[in-house]
User: Fold Non-heme bromoperoxidase BpoC from Planctopirus ephydatiae.
Amino acid sequence: MPYFETTAGRVFAVVQGEGPPVVLLHGFPLTHRMWREQMVPLSANHQLIVPDFPGFGQTPLAKDSLSIDDYAIVTFALLDVIAPQQPVHVAGLSMGGYIAMGMLRQAADRIRSLALLNTKREADSAEAAQKRLAMADKLLVEGSRVAAEAMMPMVMAPDVNEDRPALFDFVRDLMISQAARGLAVAQRAMASRPDSTDLLAKCAVPVLVVAGSEDKITPPQGMAEMARDIPGSHFVTIADSGHLSPLENPVAVNEALISHFQRYP
Ligand code: MLT
Assistant:
């Protein structure tokens, strides 16, 4: 099994392909499996590294409290083992994007390029943070079904929910199969994440911003504004897609990511 012993604990990650390393960071409440449509196309020319964060999927959770920066530390510790001393392309979706920003904050010199998909730079408002803490408590009492019930109605474009039952079931089952404790820890971490507006405005790393045309959680307008404020960034809107663009319109997302990685070899 692809487990790696790192200075930040044991981490499960799928590693595939050869070439400049690319790490793909999953969203909440998902796992490395949300990148299933990227595995073959992206690993043709890159070493693809696709972890489960602590408490998600198959990576154990050693602590009851983590910050977004802690997930970034775990990711760098994994890269120390798999691709030591190599600058890496980092692509993160939503919570994975927050963690990618955490990596940028910690060690920009280790990042070859950044792709921020369906995410946002702002910290939570007091009200949003409060809702997350309430959700964390509820998860611990009622289980991971709570997260699936809250997210499934809005996580994908309406047409996808209606016309692609196999994809709908895949995402719902992935959410439900998560351990509630890991989800609660992540909700608390997201509630206290720092604002990354200034960090991104001063960013010297090449950035691609990817929005979903019908994303209700991180709407494309906000992502366009984020891209506008990042020096030299590229912005792509993925058609026919809500918040889970890599699953909803993988062809367009793969094209955007591959072109981005090729621009910064
Ligand atoms: C995600 O997709 O990772 C979540 O929507 C992130 C969040 O709750 O802010």
